[in-house]
Amino acid sequence: MSATPTVQVPLSQGAGYGVIIGLGALFALAVVGISQALRRYSGVVQSASEYAVASRSLSTGLTAAGAVSAWCWSVTLLSSVSTAYNYGLAGALIYGAGNMSQITLFSLIAIQMKRKAPTLHTHLELIHVRYGAASHLTVLFFAVATNILVVSSVAVGAAAAINSITGVSIYAALWLLPAVVMAYTLTGGLRSTILADYLHTIVIFIILFVFWFTTYATSDKVGSPGRMYDLLQQAATSNPSPNYEGSWTTMKSLGAIKFGWLSFLEYTGVVFMDASFHQKGIAASPSATVPGYILGSLSWFSIPWCLATTAGLVALALETTSPSFPTYPNKMTADQVSSGLVLPYAAQAILGKGGSAGVLLLMFMSSTSAISAQLMAVASISGYDIFKTYFKRSATADEILRVQQISVIAFTIFMAAFGSMLHGVGVDVGFLYNITGVWSTAALSQICFIFFSSRLPRWCLFPGVWISFGAGLAVWLSLASRLVEGPLSLTALSDTDVCLYTFATAIGTGLLLCTLGSLFTPQHFDWDSIWTSPHLSAADAQEVDKIKNDEHFARPYLNKWLNVSVIASVIIFSVFMLIWPLSLYREYIFTRSFFEGWVGVSLAWAIVAFTIVGLYPLWEGRKIIKTVVVAHWVAVRGTKEEAPGPSPLTTSSDSTASQVSTSDEKFPLPHDSPVEQGQELVGASATAESGSSP
Asked: How would you describe this protein's topology in the membrane (predicted)?
């Protein structure tokens, strides 16, 4: 193991704790306040369904923002920059391409859930309805394992980065980050996490723009794309890359291509197994599901591409040439790169303490967004798939809600302790990034067949998923000891070739089992039986009636969106995984002008993405925003002008007296402010009533 040079932390521990605790408390109060305002003024009623799936009413913009934020983990930001550091421009592009197609592909699952099983609260409920307890518990186990590994990689990566910036204890960060998230997740449920995701995404884009403009426009260390190009050519001479002719500005990189396909296989499994994606798919309104995930996919791509094209290249250019780089004049060690420290070091080199503060905010925003999504996923599974399914079939909405809230607290404590254990035994982000795929790919093929085939037999799930997992695990352990020199170690298990073969084996085994089972031992399933399934109780009656009477759940309407999803998935996968990277995989080193255009396009893409996930949700929700603001203003004025005495009524100052009843929370609103269906910020309809005072 190489010696790690001592690097002085740029910010104080006080700054670190201030962001985690202070900013965390501020965000929690803001999100809880917004959620309370929506309940009070726009008719949002807290219930188990509202808590788990936001009453199935999210708009397109918020669905896209939620997908971006849920997929924008701290490990995403850290590992994308590390990949660019390892492979140059090719690493930055292929990291984004290898991890964005899954979001579009998931739109197929999301719209299929609405076509075939619109009454679901979780995707696992369908497995219990079709195949019974053994299959249900098997897939539930792998789903929760995926949630645990996702939170672990997010928390461990963020804690390591925060420690490198501020010196805050890694153990303290591992406990405080989940605790902050729990504060607003516990009270507001999925709607609160979506609102927090939206706010976090805005901040992430703003910091991204600051990094780009400082690096390529104002910095005296780089200052322009042309200057960056010159520095990278010098770096290729003193520190050649593993790419074509040692260049950092070529797309001919076998290592990057392998890493891209490894990421695609692994994180397709993660997206399809991660219950948080299913929850947001269920929560989206039918008209918002497919466009939300497509726009989210295209928007998310801009973050790792633009960030890695900036910070990853800064590290390559300044690492051994600028005294501002923390490890100067030494290169970063393999341990530092694997721990995700390329981003904080590059930010410090180009922006000083301001860059370190920016990365600190990035780590906080990205980690808390991902953790909140995982908390809600586990809460939904606990309430519907464990408590209601196995302990109390006739559970009321309030009972399910209590179980969900208790599970949020329990999972927060468990993950803080589990993350501390992982750090204590020396597990880093690089290993967690790869081991997640060993679990997530085991049931990927089965999940696809469950939603798109009515012939899949029970044995393909139990014991089929365990067979897929066993095959992948056997390949993982055997190849790690054969292809990598030395004893079996975490480094050997994280090898790209080893993991690529492992994930392909697990997915291929599952695909073979499902194909053979559907052809030779089919078990037919009547999708219409979902409507009379035992998983529906009296507590679900009102929700089921609402779905039946909603024209957006009509089969022809949903079929249209399924076709759109299929076409978009084929196009996006073909362009980003095949056409774009492989058309440039040739003996070509970027010219200065081509490089300048490449960097400019990465910024332009990020600006368009910010418009989609940052500004478009505000436009969609303009009427509900106006309604809530006006109602709150009227309520505040009414409170201030209320005369002494026990009467709950108050009279406005104008000639028209309006009644404000604190018991039923009715407030006088302008006649032009009702919220029309489909134009809500969060899908809730506003109700405004006025009357004369007695």
From this structure: Multi-pass membrane protein
Retrieve residue 539's tokens.
Answer: 């507590």
More confident residue, 83 or 663: 83
CA dihedral 124→126→132→133, nearest 10 degrees, is 10
SS3 label, residue 472: helix
pLDDT band at 48 (very low <50, low <70, confident <90, very high): low
Q: How many CA atoms lie within 13 A of 595 on its CB side?
A: 27
Note whether 506 and 465 are within 8 A (CB). no
What confidence tens digit (pLDDT) does each residue in 494-529 have? 899 999 999 999 999 999 999 999 999 999 999 988
Phi and psi, residue 533, nearest 5°: -70, 150
When pLDDT is cut at 50, 70 and 90, the band that residue 368 belongs to is confident
Residue tagged 């690089």 (tokens):
430
Residue 332: DSSP 8-state: P
Confidence (pLDDT) at 447: 96
Residue 643 within a domain = no
Owner of token pair 């928007």: 299
| Total residues belonging to the chain | 694
Q: What pLDDT, on the 0 to 100 scale, is given for residue 45?
A: 62
Type of residue found at 100: M
Give the Cα separation of 201 and 187 in Å (integer). Answer: 21
Q: Averaged over 237-242, what is the pLDDT?
A: 94
Q: For residue 182, tell me if it sits in a domain.
A: yes
41 in a structural domain:
no
Residue 42 lies in a domain: no
Among candidate residues 93, 71, 67, the one with its CA nearest the CA of residue 80? 93
Domain with 376 in it: 13-17+58-426+574-620
Write the CB contacts of 303 (distance below 8 Å, at least 6 apart in sequence): 68, 72, 76, 77, 80, 96, 204, 205, 208, 606, 609
Q: In the chain, what's the furthest Cα-to-Cα distance?
A: 87
User: Which CATH number fits the domain that encloses residue 362?
Assistant: 1.20.1730
Please list, in sequence order, all residues whose beta carbon lies within 8 angstroms of the beta carbon of residue 210, skipping any fewer than 6 positions away. 351, 358
Give dist(CA 348, CA 327) in Å, integer.
11
Give the pLDDT confidence of 664-688 residue by residue, as tens digits: 333 333 334 333 333 333 343 333 3
Amino acid identity for residue 192 in this structure: S
Q: CA-to-CA distance for 433 and 149, rounded, in angstroms? A: 9
Answer whether 96's CB lies under 8 Å from 305's CB: yes
pTM (2 d.p.):
0.85
Residues 389-448: tens digit of each pLDDT: 999 988 888 898 899 999 999 999 999 999 999 999 988 777 887 889 999 999 999 999
Question: How many alpha carbons fall within 13 Å on the CB side of residue 240?
Answer: 6
- Distance separating alpha carbons of residues 647 and 651, to the nearest angstrom: 11
| Average pLDDT taken over every residue of the chain | 86
State how many domains the chain has.
1
Q: Which two tokens stand for residue 408?
A: 């949020």
